[in-house]
Amino acid sequence: MTAIESRLKRVHSELMDVQAQLAQAGQDAAAQRLLDLAQELEAALHGAEEPARARRRARVTSEVERCPLCTIRSLHELPTETRTAKNTGREEILWRCTSCGHELWRETR
Fold this sequence. Notes:
Number of strands: 4
Shape: elongated
Distance between the termini: 47 Å
Oligomer: single chain
Number of helices: 2
Structural class: alpha+beta
Radius of gyration: 23 Å
Helix content: 25-40%
């Protein structure tokens, strides 16, 4: 567990203590708000504990070109990463070099 995770778990515990005190004092709206925040923090903590390998990676297609930056043949089209071009209004696809990480946007064919 990282230092930030242990600190956040302590904050979560303290939030739950304050929430219980507010509920006992009859301040139900404030107690519910603290409970909601504590649950959101807990969900974020569980998300942070997921192993990095479980995160989804973009699929690389068979389109490969030479990278203009490192000149290695490892520039791949990422079909899941698209946007609308500012000048033409056409769709652009992100290309990323798997060697050096250089990225560039190109219009679709």
